[in-house]
Amino acid sequence: MSHFFAHLARMKLIYRWPLMRNVTHENIAEHSLQVGMVAHGLAVIGNTFFKKSYNPDTAATLALFHDTTEVLTGDLPTPVKYFNKAIIREYNKIELSAEETLLDMLPAELRAAYEPLLSTPAIDPIYKTLVKDADILCAYMKCIEEESCGNMEFTKAKQRCKEALDTRMTDEINYFLTEFLPSIGRPFDDLS
């Protein structure tokens, strides 16, 4: 008997932004779905407008699995996770161990199918970057949504996300920011 999907089903129990006051709570299952949609979108944008050759389905699938280890580790808040280089190194070891633990839950015949989705060393660096770009975009959108509800708790996080996006800027990110971001956080009646 495998407990793999029972663990993944717990993604809905792991909440993001645990140190922040949230108007709308977000769990890692919801977040992973959004990152999957944005990663897919970035791949389509890259292919359509910038002559890239991404596989959007690969980008979306990798994004769906990008935070699965948090069912074992929890969501360590960013200020803690990146406090210093020693913590970053140790947390990376914990994440690799959690990846291996999840993979070990699978029947041997299925492991090869999930290893490219769960094992950080096995993930194609191009897609690792694309998923990280989508992850930061989704965090940025969360900050904008929270601020649009009057929650100033996310102001500094929004600035950090914007700085990260500026540092990572690609044609795909720039297109997304220009074309799609202005609608984020707007009232529903303004979207028609």
Concise account of the structure shown:
The protein is mostly helical and 192 residues long. It has helices spanning 4-8, 28-50, 56-65, 70-73, 78-81, 85-104, 108-118, 125-148, 155-168, 171-179. The model has no long low-confidence stretch (mean pLDDT 94).
Report the structural category.
mainly alpha
The averaged pLDDT comes out at: 94
What's the tally of helices? 10
Identify the CATH architecture: Orthogonal Bundle
- Shape, please? globular
Measured distance between first and last alpha carbons: 49 Å
Strand count, sense and barrel status of the largest sheet are: none
Our count of domains comes out at 1
CATH homology group: Hypothetical protein af1432
Query: What is the beta-strand fraction?
Result: under 5%
* Level-1 CATH class name: Mainly Alpha
Low-confidence stretches: none
Helix proportion: 55-70%
Order of helices and strands: HHHHHHHHHH
**Which fold name fills CATH's third level, the topology?**
Hypothetical protein af1432
The strand count comes to 0
Radius of gyration: 17 Å
